[in-house]
Amino acid sequence: MKDLLVIKDMVIEFRTPEGVVQAVNGISYSVAPGEIVAIVGESGSGKSVGARAILGLIPSPPGKIVSGSIAFDDIDLLGLDDKSIRQVRGKEIAMVFQEPMTSLNPVISIGRQLTEAMKLHLNMSQKEANERGVELLKKVGISDPEGRLSQYPHQLSGGMRQRVMIAMALSCYPKLILADEPTTALDVTVQAQVLSLMKDLCREMGVALVIITHNLGIVARYAHRVNVMYAGKIVETGIAAALYSNPSHPYTLGLLNSVPRLDQVRGTQIEPIPGSPPDLADLGPGCSFEPRCRFATARCRAETPPMIDIGGAHSSACWEIDALHQETAA
Length: 330
What we know:
alpha/beta, 12 strands, eight-stranded mixed beta sheet, single chain, about 325 residues
């Protein structure tokens, strides 16, 4: 199947008074039609910046896409002018932002915010847009959808606001949805409901989905493939089941070990990842994870590891994969 989105060697920099911050450092990945891909990593790893670049939402200055390419449905997104990218944004590619209370305008009704894109991109009348808005609110599980159109964001719960954001993302029949930390502000029960809803809607409508999150635990049952990011780079990528059963980068192993599991023996301590993420304005040679890695060797400090093919569409950027596998197999 031909890929819907293909990103190759993308580098994004931000110029700050402290120096040049390389927020994204040569990432490459693809998304097929109808596929769910998760991008996982700590805050500051470059997940959100890489997603916003797809829609041309990098503020310039200080940000700049220095190199690389973004192809969507055979369209070179980086070659589009502002008017052309606005035709893609919201219609072909939609985005669900992290915190719905800051993404929704507090002084504009839900109905107006939900129907605006439909009138712009689909040339619908207000009546037609309202009818589709009601249909979408029903689809995402909001009760009394007709009444919700006249309400304002503060009158809805956090979970309902996020469902409105999903309805807005689906409103113009997009081919791809970017969900940036879509469940961060929600409690655990609502998190599961929202993620299951997004997965079901994508399956039903054939929409591809990129989920951006810091939590490996919540994507285990939803994603087909997982890209693990650290310090602006993808350090491991693979089919979700293989990555969970056979983590092949120390950072991925650290993320998995820091998630509570029901199958662990009672009293087992969660293992936090030691140290802090590196300063992206002052990255030295070698592997960026080396200062926090218990498998690190002199080679890790001196040479940057390339992505190494492990087999089965599974790759990792680590010099000590064998040592890691020996420990996890023990």
